[in-house]
Amino acid sequence: MKYSDERRESIRKKLLPAHILIVSEVAKEEEGILNAYRRWARGDENRRSEANRPLARHTLTPEEHQHVLDICHRPAFVSLPPGQIVTRLLDEEVRYVASESSYYRILREHGEQHHRGRARVPRPEGDPQRHRVTQPNGCWTWEITYLPSLVRGQFYCLYMIVDVFSRKIITAEVFEQESMANNSSVNQRVVLHEGCVNQPLVLHADNGSAMKGSTLQATLQRLNITPSYSRPQDSNDNAISESLLRTCKYRPNFPTDGYADLSAAQQWVVGFLQWYNHEHRHSAIRFVTPAERHAGQDLAVLAKRDEIYVEAKRKHPIRLSGSTRNWTPRKTAWLNPDAEDPVHQQNQQLEMA
């Protein structure tokens, strides 16, 4: 039985002041704990991984290992993967030497399992770009999606930018087609509207060509906006925008058959923006509206809710015997948070309190 360091420490604290009789009682509850405790008390390390164990009866012999290597070194097989080698031996020589996984294992042990061919070696994706925000207009994410029309194969392009801290839709515009000019003008208008020119602002988007065009890059540089991008072919890095688009397209009044024209699509998006920003209580921001959060009005709203809960507990102390619901405003918002980050863990504990 294996124990983590935390489990060992808890058991050590439980047993150190105890008599051997107490140790015996605990040993009845925890299988193998007595021997483990004696070893820990002596300061010994776990040497089970260093023990000499007999080989399994089905283990390949050294001669069979070499035979597998000789087969892989044949001129006809030298450029083939084990999957091809095993099947060709079955078809052409009517014999079975070892499993496909054994071929891979033996080749790895001898340093002969490498990438082959002209294709580039796959590279690890690495960590996504992470952003921690403590105020509105510190980090935005944006996305472009298609809206259907009544004509089959014809779509309109919806541009949507959302604030990571407040979850407010900063802007939502519909065009007949996607273009570099539209990409640039939408971002320029929204920055001027929010009054955050030459302020530290991060604009996160996916890795599509529309988000990385030279026209847009020049506009972002002129507005002093720092671009941020998702990893290639990884939609999870822009989860806030992706989730927002899902909410948009699954509204009960979303016209699944398509919009009659561009004006109809624009009018529907205006109505959705009004509902989302000013009526929808967002679960990620303590169920206040994104507009209240963006304007800083959520503090008063949450304080009032807390007073109501405290008064309800005073009137019904037996019914509400535990702590009241946590209506503390969330002071920090994250885009692609690191679960191992101590700051993120501390914030999660405070929010769950």
Secondary-structure map:
Blueprint (H helix, E strand, L loop, with lengths): L4 H11 L4 H10 L3 H9 L20 H11 L9 H12 L6 H10 L21 E3 L5 E10 L6 E9 L5 E7 L4 H15 L6 E5 L8 H9 L2 E5 L9 H11 L12 H17 L11 H6 L2 H18 L17 E3 L6 H11 L1
Parallel strand pairs: 2-5, 5-6
Antiparallel strand pairs: 1-7, 2-3, 3-4
Short summary:
The protein is α/β, with parallel strands linked by helices.
Word description of this protein:
InterPro entries: Integrase_cat-core, RNaseH-like_sf, RNaseH_sf, Transposase_IS3/IS150/IS904. It comes from Vreelandella vilamensis. Residues 132-298 form the Integrase catalytic domain. By secondary structure, this protein is of the alpha/beta class. The protein has 3 domains: 5-45; 74-113, no CATH class; 128-353, Nucleotidyltransferase, domain 5 (2-Layer Sandwich), CATH 3.30.420.10. Helices cover 42% and strands 12% of the residues. The chain has helices at 5-15, 20-29, 33-41, 62-72, 82-93, 100-109, 180-194, 214-222, 239-249, 262-278, 290-295, 298-315, 342-352; strands at 131-133, 139-148, 155-163, 169-175, 201-205, 225-229, 333-335. Strands 4-3-2-5-6 form a 5-stranded mixed beta sheet, sandwiched between helices. A two-stranded antiparallel ribbon has the order 1-7. β2 (139-148) and β3 (155-163) form a beta hairpin. α7 (180-194) runs parallel beside α8 (214-222). It is extended. The two termini are 34 Å apart.
